[in-house]
Amino acid sequence: MENRWLSLVFGLIFIQGLLALSPIPVADDEWEEFSRTLRSPAYRLPNTTKPSKYEISLIPYFDVVPTPNIPPFSFDGQVSIWIQATQAGVREIVMHCNSLVINSVTVSLNNTAMNLTNSNFTCEMPYAFLRIGTNEPLQMGQEYLIHITYRGFFQTNMRGFYRSWYRDSTGFKWMGTTQFQPGHARQAFPCYDEPSFKAYFDITIHRERSFSPTISNMPIKSISTTAVPGRISETFFTTPLTSTYLLAFIVSHYDRVESNGSPNRPFDIYARNNAGITGNYSLVMGEKLLEAMENYTQIPYYTMARNITMQQAAIPDFSAGAMENWGLLTYREALILFDPQNTNNFYKQRIANIVSHEIAHMWFGNLVTCAWWDNLWLNEGFARFYQYYLTHSVAEDLGFDIRFIVEQLQTAMISDSIDSAHALINPDVNDPTSVSNHFSTITYARGASILRMTQHFLGESTYLKGLRKYLRARQFDVAEPQHLFNALDEAAREDGALSAYGGITINSYFRSWAEKAGHPLLTVTINQTSGLMTVTQARWERNTGVSNFTSIWEVPITWTRAGAPDFNNLKPSQVITADVTNIERGTRGLEWVIFNKQESGFYRVNYDDVNWALLTRALRSSNRTVIHELNRAQIVDDLFQLARAGVMTYNRAFNILSFLEFEDSYAPWIAAIAGFNFARNRLVYDTTNMQRLQNLAIKLSAAITRRLGHVERNGESFMDGLLRMHVNTFLCNVGHPDCLEAARVSFANWRNGGFIPANMRQWVYCSGLRQGNSSDFDFFWNEFLKEDLANNAVIMIGAAGCTNDVGSLEKFLDAIITVNNSAEIIRPQDNSAAWSSAVTGNNANPMRMLNWLRRNVNLFIERNISLQTPISNIASRLRNENEISELLSWLETNREILGSSYNTGITGIASTRSNMAWSNRRVSEFARYFDTGYIEDKIDDDNGHDSANIATLSIATLLATVAISLNF
């Protein structure tokens, strides 16, 4: 994540988009605050009682209320909870509540009220506990009824039962909606708000007559106009046995904008009534994905509960990317509403795979739920995996099989390659940091990557058999990792899937990956004379290459060689379990090998000099595509990471990466962009070498720009359109002349009434503003204020900071903290993207933003707006000690009013100085390559050594190497 700002709009849209596939896109204030309520196991509920059923009744009030003693944006509630004691002698019932005023509590057995030890009830903070004491102990085997009346308040931070706003065809509208994961149902009603306390729920909402029918997890069962005077009361069918975090309800003026009209398999899309046809794509994709998941699991969705439906709703203000509430999936508008003319390919595939993610959760997460957040990967790892491979099964043109590697596996490896990384399984997840961290790239993307590796290890049919066993055994229940391991091992025994691996079991293999953090680097050294390959594994660390922790994994190995290249058989040939393993290649003489076919395993690979030289020749040859696209992407990513850590020099890495000049495929270039952006991040303090690096990137883009060009083409493939968008965003940022000119012309045509194709807007907006003036920004900003399509609005927010006009930048900054008539110009969910855009759009922006912040700091204090994000962004973008001193002086002067934001600034400055020091140490390696360019490698005639000195290749050796590469 540390190179995110240098990606500019690409990073803003692409990386943020990947993270937003999780219910928690980033470790933001929501999760930090929730985490503070879990400081120790004392914050966990006791297991002395458990619920079986809830009846919830809510009366929501918005800005207009019927009587003076009811505050606006509040709700009255009643909840009845049927519970049982799980052990003898229980005299206290403990559940959760937060931000609720408790009016009354009764506990009864067989319609007889019990005497309670207290009469005043409060939500005990910071634990968020409601304690109900009884004079007599609860009897085992008896069902007690707790009845509570209370008042709650619509939250304004996009969690719990919260308020949002939108504009439909008739104007401004308020709505109430929910986001309960991981522990915010307690802000809507008293409850056992942990995932293991599953129960049935009957929900009734008493809405104002002017509102549309309420939407909840289940369809409406009954309607009454007499239960609450002046209101319509809607009671929903009973939910499946479920956890509190999966409940949802929406009180709004929404319409059903799309529906399949099926009485047996109902599937509906809800949104504001002016959404037009933008819900159609998610309906079509959703139906395909739901059916595919049913076929895959052999558990039909519509049998999970009587009367269950499938509803998806577009929410204007939503802290999460999407949420898998059972039967009512909720999304940010940008992630579900698709306009064929105005939504780009990035958001088209985002909508498809986020719908897939949430649908997969109906099985992995809802039907079978992690018992506690320490094993969240049992929910999220599966959902992240299937959002790619399930979607690929119904829409191959979207390229999810290729994109998983660069978007998930390689991203996960970055997060997983520091010593402070967390494991998938951690029994100590109770404290604030560990809970927050478990909603992370590691849990989602690493979890998915390990599942992919396991699928190839077992073989797809055995893997699927094991998953079906797991789901059937744990349905409507919670699960621990051992339940999954046991099911997979049972399937493996039945099929003999692991019989060739010397006693390895899924239990031992998976535990080696799930119970420890990190992943290995395999260093492969080859005796080219004998063919003996020596493989050494050690935990990888991204900054030094050497972890402080010694770890050994059970690593499924795949490899292939130049003489008989086979990149498609992904069944591992063996499992290495030692730190050093010898493997016979089976051939003699010069021949490259590649380990980790299609990057099917979760590990990095480094080779000796001879093998790298042979690979360089093969990759630069006309037959380079013999090496699979995913392995070319693997090589790019591994080389950039080896160089970053200092295991390989940058001049050596760039010598191998010179093959990019001939490369025009998706995965290698996405990996290359990430690597170049990290390098730009580190060379930003040296303007001369920064420009030389950018010139190198432009030179290496020859093949990709020659094939794709800078203008959208009719009839091109989806993947070409998506790749051009990413490549041109990068190339305009590094100053590619043709890209800049194409952007300038397209932006000017737009100002004159022309149309910018959706896939070009990301880079045309930014580069057009960067090359333009205040008049260009004013035109752009007026278009933004009129924009009704959320995903295009997010693109525009990501580009707004690219303006070089100081007044225009400050106009954008003002908008981030401005509220007009109860509505924000830039919604809070997009604030992080807006701050990032403002600070990254141009090199001069950090100091411009600091000057603006100095003048407006009191507005932040008055409006209770956090300063942490803008200060962090500024501190991470400073260029020299003079800029650092200026920020530091302001931080010290305002230390008292800045509070914790002061520490954020100090931390950011320390990080910037660390990056500057890195640049000073390593820049000479870059300069050496800039001076020499590509140098052909020479392999010593004595090729029996495991490594060789590198110089110029002789003609004979070159011909021999090419012959091997061409499989002569």
From TrEMBL:
Residues 51-246 form the Aminopeptidase N-like N-terminal domain. It holds the Pfam family ERAP1_C. The keyword Zinc applies. Coiled coil: none annotated. GO terms for biological process: peptide catabolic process; proteolysis. Residues 1-20 form the signal peptide. GO terms for cellular component: cytoplasm; extracellular space; plasma membrane; side of membrane. GO terms for molecular function: metalloaminopeptidase activity; peptide binding; zinc ion binding. Its EC number is 3.4.11.-. It is found in: Cell membrane. Residues 592-897 form the ERAP1-like C-terminal domain. Zn(2+) binds at residues 357, 361, 380. It is a lipid-anchor; GPI-anchor. It comes from the Eukaryota. The keyword Cell membrane applies. This is Aminopeptidase. It comes from Danaus plexippus plexippus.
